[in-house]
Predict the structure.
Amino acid sequence: MMLSFRLSTLQAPDWAQQTFARAPLGDQRRAQRATHVAQAMARHPGLSIPALFDSPYEVKATYTFLDRPEATPDRLQRPHRDAVAQRLRESDHTFLLLEDTSDMSWAGNQPVAGLGPIGLGRKGLQGFLLHSVLAVAWPREAAGHSRRPPVEVLGLADQIYHVRTPRPAGEKRGHSKARLGRQRESALWAAMGQRLGAAPAGVRWERVCDRGADIFEFLAACLALRHGFVVRAAQDRALEDGGRLFQAACQADVLGHFELALRARPGQSARVARLAVAAAPVRLRSPQRPGHGAGHEQPIAATVVRVFEPDPPAGVKAPLEWRSADRRGGGGFRASPGGGGQIQRALADRGVPQGAEDGPGRRAAATGDGGAAVRGHRHHEPGGAAPD
Ligand SMILES: [Mn+2]
């Protein structure tokens, strides 16, 4: 799903005025300062604060402002988030909530106040986790179009950050760093659901997440909040009927085809891939958890979606290699379409299809990563197996 954006034509001064002039910063002069800084940043994206302004006074005033206890991300973003929240309640609309966690990283060995460790223990990396939800409106006339229509970007529905506390000196590392990483990220996904709250009646909110969100409790919480979801499948989950998710994906009926322009990659030139979309209803069994066995919770009714390339052209050699952008690692893996395998492309991180693997049978064993996504929506519940 490569989204094309319809960008607002709002000019920088107006945008900054609308976005920050009413920020609840305790003093109107601070809101004016925020607006002023935002205007400069919008005119010159990417410049550091000292480079933004000609006068040293302006630079100092900016730092003084940012040092204020009132100048928190929540307060600065409040007018913007309120405006987005209002749009998200428009009835009869479908909104995509594109969600991911980023590592914000600062180099240097000197500890910086307010930052914590990031990454998987590499020395000297400090920063914080930033979890963002970008809201886009799905056009109402989209149904039936063969080409993907542009979506309208509304802005940040919400954003939270998390600073890790360093491991105390002398304490041993956890048994599984990857598992601890997952727990931290899963807490952010869960917290975001609670902050967004339940979707209003008559409005569709679809949370679009990478495999970091493939957590049973997260999917269940989405349904409880009437959030739909499209989550890249990370785990070959057990199904209520005794089967497995990835097997169900591979046996799913092909519903249609579409073409996707692929960027050039090392060892492979840009090309257009013809992709097949297959989908099947599934009921995900709740996994084993401390204190109770598998199947203890209600199963989740969802649709497994598989996007793959059934007939890769002869000229396409193996070197599609996918590396997880996920900070938990997960490794890369290779496709060998010539040897009877198939390139499978998933609805992947940030909605951009990527990923390839050896073949249906090996996908789970090789990497624990699936070329599949699960999709669910409460509106088609309860008991019903197949969201549209
Ligand atoms: Mn992620």
